[in-house]
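Everyone, describe these structure tokens:
***
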Amino acid sequence: MSALPKAKFLDPTTPPTMATLVILASMGALSMNIFLPSMPAIQAYFGASPSAVQFLLSGFLFMNGILQLIIGPLSDRFGRRPIALWAFGIFVLASVVCANAPNTATLITARTIQAVVVASFVLSRAAARDIAGEKDAASLMGYIAMGMSIAPMTGPTIGGFLQEAFDWPAPFWALAILGTLVLFLVWRDMGETNLNPSSSMGEQIKLYPQLLTSRRFWGYALSNMFASGVFFSLLGGAPFVGTEVYGLSPSTLGLYFIFGPLGYFCGSLISGRYAVRMGTYRMLLSGTALTIAGMLLALALVLMGFDHPIAFFGCTAFIGIGNGMVIPSASAGMMSIDPRLAGTAAGLGGSMMTSGGGAMSALVVLFLSKEAGVTPLILFMLVSAVLGLFAALYTIRVEYQMRGDGDHPLPS
């Protein structure tokens, strides 16, 4: 049971409210995808190569992975609140530079610095673990994920309309304005939740081997990485598929993106309501199985001749459902290894997720062509989903070995 006082809205002496954690986490998701419909316009405006523009996403994700390795331990050492304030201050400045970038080098540099917003993912999950404890953490994270799913659901849609109305800088101005509002909210509502910060980084580093040598941690982390890798592959490949294969406008492409986040909302609702009842391992297996089923359905529809945007993007709802079930449980599992390293575990696991996702979003583009259509993208996502299933099965096997009993039902 948490020793933290009850949350009071806009009271910085109490833990953050659920609404603040949702909004905090949402900014990371919104920052990732609001500019996607503007990628073709950015390429045309600067006369840049497709790979350079793609780096606005893949570079952002790679830097996300690096920063999480730093932000997680820093929040265990100094607390969640000060790290969040510094991170959003830097994010707002980087967003303004993006909107005013005179060339691709400046834009890519500022966009990479924008990746500091990854603190929103790490700190919202670590704070949820601080507040809820081990037993209810997956459920609380499920509800947070359900709320934050609105951001990726609406981000590309909003970005598409902003692009058509005001051109490519508009999504970055939107991020600067929203980042300022979130910075104020963090300052007023996010009281400290880390009641037992380590006395020094040296003391904390001594605890790292316990985390890094844990097979359970790596099982959870790989489940998380491959499940989210399906979604990141979609982010990397969908702009090309939407514009080159299906000939969609930025606003229409943004509308088709809604299926994945809508599924994520449903999957997160399932996590929030049933994570405790179903248990971590059933959630992992069910989520990965649904993702695989969705990709197989998309592949079957395309092979049967139903090669229409709704056939492909409609099936991405299964990716969202699967991610909504897997990620909260995998994240809670990672942070349960040692509560003293909750932030570090969230950072390391998140780093693997976004670094792996960045690699996949960059790699998938190499397999895409107008002639091949959407099939290579579907196959790429299917492979990531299958690897996620293997990681989930490995985690369950490790649990059985630790308990010394392989005859009982799936452990929770």
Notes: Residues 44 and 59 are 20 Å apart (CA to CA).
